Every structure is written in C-alpha cells, then in structure tokens.
Amino acid sequence: MPNILMTRIDNRLVHGQVGVTWTNTLGANLVVVANDDAAADPVQQNLMDMVVADGVQTRYFTLQKTIDVIHKAADRQKIFLVCKTPQDVLTLVRGGVPITFVNVGNMHFAAGKRQIHKTVSVDDDDIAAFRELAALGVACEVRRVPDEAGEAIGKLLA
Fold first, then answer.
1. The predicted structure's pLDDT at residue 21
2. Helix (H, G, I), strand (E, B) or coil at 139
C-alpha cells in the first residue's frame, strides 16, 4: 500500500504553501502531481520544482499513470499527492488509489461557480464529485494552511 500522507486539491497545484509549508508539516519526501496537463508541460514542472523544499522529490504523472504506478511506491516514499480538481481525485479513487482524506486548499472562482469558502468556489460538477467522494467514504475538508482549523466540505455544500 502506498504511503500517501495527504491528498490536496489546489487549482494552482504546487506553489510555496504546498511546496514548503504543507510538505514540511506532513514530513513528505515526495510530491506527486496527478494532472494530465502538468504531466505534459516541462515548463510548468520546472516552475513548480523551484518552490519545493530541498530534499523533496517531485513526480508529474497523468491521472492514468498515477493509477498505474502508485501501488509500486516504496514504503520509504512519504507521498503528498496534489490534484487540481475534485473530479481528478474521484478518477484516482475510482482507479483504486487508496485515498481516504482530501484537503481542499484552493478552487478559484470562475464563471458558473459559487463561492462556499474564502478560497473555494464550486460548480455543479464539483459538487457532484464531492458528493460521490463522500459516498465512497472519502472525507474532504477545506483547510488552506496546516495551522488553520478544517471545515468539512459537506457542511459548506449544504
């Protein structure tokens, strides 16, 4: 079983807060970005690598590759899994990735979305994905930084 310390949804993927603050707090030594676009974009990967703490490795996998290889992770790999959307997390869970908890950090406001928290805006597709994750036993909470109290996403969607 892969040693996934935490899974985070953040539409910015890896930035300073993720690459240093969360990684250090979790004690992660590997950040896996599961995102089809980022997996194919070496420029974006280089920018994200610049904000990851020293000694922490990064991998940029498509959703399918994450599903295919996550179970091959060594026990010594303490994995911080980062996704862009709840739909991406749902794809991973359906594919057998053992995710039981999701930290929702940032989902930007855009046309067709409504704000449910300072840093989280959702549309009907997001809500459906969060509800299905809950039905599959995956707890989701909004929490921007480690020292902030988390709020269950279900309460915010009600």
1. 94
2. strand
For residue range 22-31, list pLDDT tens digits in order: 999 999 999 9
Neighbours of 94 (CB within 10 A): 12
Task: Please give the structure tokens belonging to residue 156.
Answer: 């915010």
Q: Which of 15, 71, 108, 117 is catalytic?
A: 15
Question: 112-138 as b/e, with b when 16 or more CB fall inside 10 Å?
Answer: ebeebbebbbbeeebeebbbebeeeeb
pTM of the model: 0.96
Q: What is the DSSP-derived secondary structure letter of residue 45? A: H
Architecture of domain 7-157: 3-Layer(aba) Sandwich (3.40)
Q: Which two tokens stand for residue 109?
A: 């406001």
Distance CA(82)–CA(116), nearest Å, equals 21
* Annotation says 15 is catalytic: yes
Q: What pLDDT was estimated at residue 57?
A: 97
Quickly tell me which residue has 């790999």 as its tokens.
77
- Whether residue 158 is predicted with pLDDT greater than 90 in this model: the reply is no
